[in-house]
Automatic annotation (TrEMBL):
Origin species: Actinokineospora alba
Keyword Transferase belongs to the record: yes
Annotated GO MF terms: RNA binding; tRNA (guanine) methyltransferase activity
Record SUPFAM superfamilies: alpha/beta knot
Domain of life: Bacteria
Entry-linked InterPro entries: Alpha/beta_knot_MTases, SpoU_MeTrfase, TRM3/TARBP1, tRNA_m1G_MTases_N
UniProt-listed GO biological process terms: tRNA methylation
Keyword Protease: no
Lineage of source species: Bacteria, Bacillati, Actinomycetota, Actinomycetes, Pseudonocardiales
Name this polypeptide is given: tRNA (Guanosine-2'-O-)-methyltransferase
Keywords carried by this UniProt record: Methyltransferase, Transferase
Record-annotated tRNA/rRNA methyltransferase SpoU type domain positions: 40-167
Length: 173
């Protein structure tokens, strides 16, 4: 029997195939978990944002910076946009021409599998882990995507849902 037919790339080969420059802001795709409940999810989303070339928009809750720092396993600066007013921030992004997409179980939601890669500036809004996107923020959404589930759970946690949607919207999946 011969050796494995699959050759795994080395870390050096992987690094050399990626962007050659550091980014300060990619300014086209944002993950916006504006009502987070669990700090651990922020680190996971930060890692996904780096992987797909997205920025992270976060509220200035007192515990969020520490949770993000603790969860940042990359140990490199992240592209983070801070807001003290989540609804105001979303409204300003919309006024600037961004498409606002929520991950939510709504009648008008499109299945994530049926969504293509985004063109232009897009904000992916992720709701509270228990209550979803607040009703007053739903009016700011241009569309909703839904992640179908066949199990007994009603939803995925915000890090998993956000990661799936970011990969799909970025066109990497």
């Amino acid at each position: 029997m011969n050796g494995p037919a699959i050759r795994v790339r080395t870390p050096s080969e992987i690094r050399n195939s990626r962007r050659s420059r550091k980014h300060s802001c990619w300014d086209h795709l944002y993950a916006a978990p504006l009502w987070p409940l669990h700090g651990a999810n922020l680190g996971t989303l930060a890692r996904t944002c780096d992987a797909v070339g997205a920025c992270l928009a976060l509220p200035r809750f007192p515990w969020v910076p520490e949770a993000l720092a603790r969860g940042n396993t990359l140990r490199k600066p992240l592209c983070v946009h801070w807001t003290g007013d989540p609804l105001g921030w979303l409204a300003r992004q919309r006024e600037r021409g961004a498409r606002i997409v929520g991950v939510e179980l709504a009648d008008e939601a499109v299945r994530l599998a049926d969504v293509g890669a985004v063109r232009g500036k897009t904000v992916l809004v992720l709701g509270h882990e228990q209550h979803g996107i607040p009703p007053e923020a739903l009016d700011l959404l241009d569309s909703c995507v839904e992640i179908p589930m066949i199990g007994i759970g009603a939803s995925l946690n915000v890090a998993v849902a956000g990661s799936l949607a970011l990969y799909k919207l970025s066109g990497l999946m």
